[in-house]
Amino acid sequence: MASGLLGVCSPRGLLVKARNLNYLNTSHDILGHMTDLIYAEKDLVLSLKEYILVEEAKLSKIKSWANKMEALTSKSAADPEGYLSHPVNAYKLVKRLNTDWPALEDLVLQNSAAGFIANLSVQRQFFPTDEDETGAAKALMRLQDTYKLDPDTISKGELPGTKYQAVLSVDDCFGMGRSAYNEGDYYHTVLWMEQVLKQLDAGEEATTSKAQVLDYLSYAVFQLGDLHRALELTRRLLSLDPSHERAGGNLRYFERLLEEEREKMLLNHTEAELAPQEGIYERPVDYLPERDIYESLCRGEGVKLTPRRQKRLFCRYHHGNGTPQLLIAPFKEEDEWDSPHIVRYYDVMSDEEIERIKEIAKPKLARATVRDPKTGVLTVASYRVSKSSWLEEDDDPVVARVNLRMQHITGLTVKTAELLQVANYGMGGQYEPHFDFSRKDEQDAFKRLGTGNRVATFLNYMSDVEAGGATVFPDLGAALWPKKGTAVFWYNLLRSGEGDYRTRHAACPVLVGCKWDPYVQLPSGHIYLDLAHKSGMDVTNYAVNDHK
Where would I find the Fe2OG dioxygenase domain in this sequence (predicted)? Predict the structure, then answer.
């Protein structure tokens, strides 16, 4: 028996080290194109049904032949000599064995699956990988944590705003637990393996056995420090499978650990028994200090929009400080927050423009990156899980039209702005709390762009989201919800040019639906309006500061 961590064997019989739970989610390398997978799967089903029809026709012929031969041989075997006394029967016997049975052999050996296998082989190159499946499981667990959903709720598909019914089977839940286990995430392993047991106890049929579940669960609770429960679960496992070698070794190890604990207590003159845990475990603390605030805002909790603050928020028509293009057709402007001033504009993009931008952005979608504050190089990060593409004005007239409209609304030039970035947040997509501007210790963050700091952010919303997907500001206690065709805008820098740290914000995970956000980061040096003026939208552009 291979020895595991601290002498106990994991379900794989291998040493499993706890890894950093801030794992990189790669599910969006494929989730942005999930609709293509839907059509690929539909094509495979049609191909499979065609194969089944061919197989059924072949089996029908074989079955007919078998019935015919069964009737004939029952007669011939009853009186072989009498049967063969008829010369026609003798001839037919020779013919059948020489011609008909070999023909049947050819029929049986016909490879009617060739077409289906060929189609499957072509489609397989587009299939998700093991890494993608793990990423999808992590996305579900992210939603589970952020929106405080228990595994039973997710398993039953009882999510707000859902249009279709979707449930997780025992085997699906087991896959969730095993994915968490393989990442050293024993907290979620326990939650999902307990859900598997619950569904098995309810009588649901599955290929997963209770022994398999108990194997993972006992090791996971041991890793969480619950020795009593690990011992109890291991005994349950052995009652189901007495020959389970690893469980037998673990049982002896757990019993020895308990005995050592009792001896220590006696040496310390302590008579109290080791108190077993209640089977409820705390979610591990991670790297993000405002995790609780961020996630509560994502749920719509803790928003600090007091009545007094709300009285300072107004709606108006925005003419862009006399911009000629907006004098005839001004935009509806709504205050979202007073300080720092965050505004929302309505009807910034038409449905036709939105669909066109999606169309040209989709082929370019790739895993979203962030700029390394020290090197200025773009790199992927676990705290930003989405797909994005960068659009130039030469890509399509709609890009130039959207950029010009943004310039009219904000009074900021797009000549020094970064390219229009389109972000797609699919299953569990998020961007954890971050600043859009560079801090003092990140002087070279935008050096490669040839620009200064990001003055402002213009964020467009190209879709409504059934649940989740808010843009939240943890330091403010503000939450902005996606509304298709609208845009929000705020300044990242103060008048002094210093960064406004209150603008630290995040894109919450999408619980139900799909979120498209084109945005622009606007660089400064060419600012037409007073910096006190704010405005916004749902495609993103960033503004950049003077070169210093």
Answer: 416-528
